[in-house]
């Protein structure tokens, strides 16, 4: 398989780098006339589907030192892939997109012990329609069709408006917003938060007091109660935090404190759960791997997203498992040419 074909397949299935319409058309044309390309594409779809099935089960395991790395898979693209497979097997010459099934703007991508207020558990892969949503406990990661990822930690009450906006009434959320979803909005009774390409957290307590912390990038925060619609928003950069009350129009700077987001943020980053000696490092601009010291834990932190390896890489783990020291020759290998998030 050529590098160009591999790149087209990766873009079609990987949420970190969206394929353009021209690239999708090029992929369709290639699949319709090249049997080997079809085999390669279907193999890639099967790998993504297998990863989703594997990562959606057993996330509440209490194994000592357990960590669950996740490579996210776009539900929309997976549906397109499966539709393409059916198309190629049955009717050659029909466009791939014509077989894709319309999707909800929001999909439950990952679940860690999350339940509705009715006691019914959330399940990985289910669609969430616009409207009220309650998470009585646990963690739910929502993947929006525009690429935005939002993790909700219960107890929480929110309302999904559309793929670009939600309203948080109570609880904690963390959001990772790619370029394709810049402008994503989280509203509360006390604050109007507009993403400018970033990762951030929002928490709302029972009285409506709202805290906003920016892990990476920048957001714009304003008061929905202001009498001056032309008033400039408060621009909040990484490593800073503000607080707003529903009884006031002021946006006040507060100490940057990420502890309330430490459960939800790892799920946004692809780590469902760590136990035992594993510890996910708190987000923020002050974290530098070379300067970080922790003699009590095995540290886990997000490193790079969507890179393509140029050579075979030996790693400690690539699947959910218990971490243990091993000889170099016994470590699993990641083949070159794969798109990776570490």
Describe this entry's structure for a reader.
It is a single chain. This protein has 342 residues and is α+β, with helices and mostly antiparallel strands. It folds into 3 domains: 97 residues; 156 residues, Jelly Rolls; 71 residues, no CATH class. It has 5 helices and 22 strands. The strands form 5 sheets. Strands 2, 3, 4, 5, 6, 7, 8, 9, 10, 11, 12, 13 and 14 form a 13-stranded mixed sheet that branches. Strands 15-1-20 form a 3-stranded antiparallel sheet. Strands 16-17 form a two-stranded parallel sheet. α1 crosses α2, α2 crosses α3 and α3 runs antiparallel to α4. The protein is globular. About 15% of the residues have low confidence.
Properties at a glance:
342 residues; alpha+beta; Jelly Rolls; 13-stranded mixed beta sheet; globular
Question: Quick recap of the structure?
Answer:
The chain is α+β, with helices and mostly antiparallel strands. Helix content is 20%, strand content 32%. The protein folds into 3 domains: 3-99; 106-261, Sandwich (Jelly Rolls); 270-340, no CATH class.
């Amino acid at each position: 398989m050529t590098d160009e074909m591999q790149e087209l397949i990766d873009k079609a299935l990987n949420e970190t780098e969206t394929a353009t319409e021209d690239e999708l058309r090029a992929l369709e044309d290639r699949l319709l006339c090249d049997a080997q390309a079809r085999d390669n594409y279907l193999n890639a779809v099967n790998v993504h589907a297998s990863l989703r099935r594997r990562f959606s089960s057993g996330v509440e395991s209490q194994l000592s030192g357990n960590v669950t790395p996740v490579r996210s898979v776009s539900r929309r693209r997976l549906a397109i892939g499966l539709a393409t497979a059916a198309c190629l097997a049955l009717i050659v010459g029909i466009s791939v997109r014509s077989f894709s099934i319309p999707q909800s703007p929001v999909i439950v991508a990952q679940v860690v012990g999350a339940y509705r207020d009715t006691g019914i558990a959330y399940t990985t892969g289910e669609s969430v329609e616009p409207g009220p949503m309650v998470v009585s406990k646990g963690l739910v990661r929502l993947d929006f069709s525009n690429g935005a990822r939002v993790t909700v930690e219960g107890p929480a009450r929110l309302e999904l408006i559309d793929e670009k906006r939600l309203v948080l009434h109570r609880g904690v959320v963390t959001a990772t917003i790619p370029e394709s979803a810049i402008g994503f909005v989280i509203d509360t009774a006390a604050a109007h938060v507009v993403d400018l390409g970033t990762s951030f957290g929002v928490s709302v307590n029972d009285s409506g007091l709202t805290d906003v912390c920016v892990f990476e990038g920048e957001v714009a925060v304003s008061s929905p109660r202001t009498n001056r619609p032309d008033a400039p928003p408060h621009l909040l950069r990484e490593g800073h935090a503000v607080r707003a009350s529903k009884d006031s129009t002021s946006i006040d700077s507060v100490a940057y404190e990420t502890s309330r987001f430490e459960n939800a943020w790892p799920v946004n980053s692809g780590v469902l759960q760590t136990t035992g000696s594993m510890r996910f490092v708190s987000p923020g601009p002050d974290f530098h791997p070379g300067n970080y010291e922790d003699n009590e834990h095995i540290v886990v932190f997000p490193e790079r997203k969507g890179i393509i390896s140029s050579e075979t890489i030996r790693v400690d783990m690539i699947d959910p498992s218990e971490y243990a020291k091993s000889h170099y020759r016994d470590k699993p290998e990641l083949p070159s040419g794969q798109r990776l998030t570490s």
